[in-house]
UniProtKB/TrEMBL annotation:
Organism listed in the record: Psychrobacter urativorans
HAMAP family according to UniProt: COQ7 (MF_01658)
A Pfam family of this chain: COQ7
EC number of this enzyme: 1.14.99.60
Residues involved in Fe cation 1 binding: 61, 91, 94, 175
Name of the protein this chain belongs to: 3-demethoxyubiquinol 3-hydroxylase
Gene (name only): coq7
Molecular function terms, GO-annotated: 3-demethoxyubiquinol 3-hydroxylase activity; metal ion binding
Length: 212
């Protein structure tokens, strides 16, 4: 078996980016984490609200793909690079679950998906270039903030939409696991200005993705 060339790696990176940005281009390795296949009945207002929340979560998963791909691109340590690639692969299921629920609601992902992916890739590449510890700390903080908004969204969903609640609950469990792995592998606590900037950017994304 021949070794991959630099061009091979570039093409693989482009393929991963396109799969993150183009809806329904990723196969899921796991089924939806739901207790049954019943689609909850929602009125028009509820369905629109749930779609907005799921669009935010889908965009968050696109951002996670960009972040991990960017970090893997610039990471200095091969072990860290492989860890980033593995985490990105695990997040693919979350992406597919959100896409599936959006389709069930008759809705669609954010029209700004390419923008959010590109920004996240850039941030991930910068974090990976600074140091392994900072890069892993960035992952840990990102996952902590993602967990916060997942838990918020579970509380904001209509009571009868058990399907969406179960999807987000499973995602939350796995995001926290990724956070713990990043810390165990040497991730450092980020400074307050960095954390606040990350939160501000996340709030901008959420405000936009809910509607568009």
């Amino acid at each position: 078996m021949r070794s991959l060339t630099k061009m091979d790696h570039v093409l693989l990176g482009v393929d991963k980016a396109l799969r993150a940005m183009v809806p329904h281009s990723n196969p899921s390795t796991r089924p939806l984490p739901v207790s049954n296949d019943t689609i909850p009945k929602l009125n028009i207002t509820e369905a629109r609200h749930v779609a907005g929340l799921m669009r935010i979560n889908h965009t968050g998963e696109v951002c996670a793909q960009g972040l991990y791909h960017g970090q893997a691109f610039s990471a200095k340590d091969n072990d860290v690079k492989q860890a980033m690639q593995q985490s990105a692969q695990e997040e693919v299921d979350h992406l597919v679950w959100c896409e599936t629920r959006l389709s069930e609601l008759g809705s669609h992902p954010s029209i700004f998906t390419p923008l959010w992916y590109g920004m996240s890739f850039g941030l991930g590449a910068i974090a990976g270039a600074i140091s392994n510890e900072f890069s892993l700390g960035f992952v840990a903080e990102t996952e902590a903030q993602v967990s916060e908004h997942l838990q918020d969204h579970i509380g904001l969903l209509p009571a009868q939409d058990i399907r969406s609640k179960e999807i987000l609950a499973q995602m939350d469990i796995e995001e926290l696991h990724h956070r713990e792995l990043a810390l165990e592998n040497g991730g450092i606590a980020l400074s307050a200005p960095v954390r606040h900037t990350m939160r501000w950017m996340a709030n901008c994304m959420k405000a936009t993705a809910y509607h568009l």
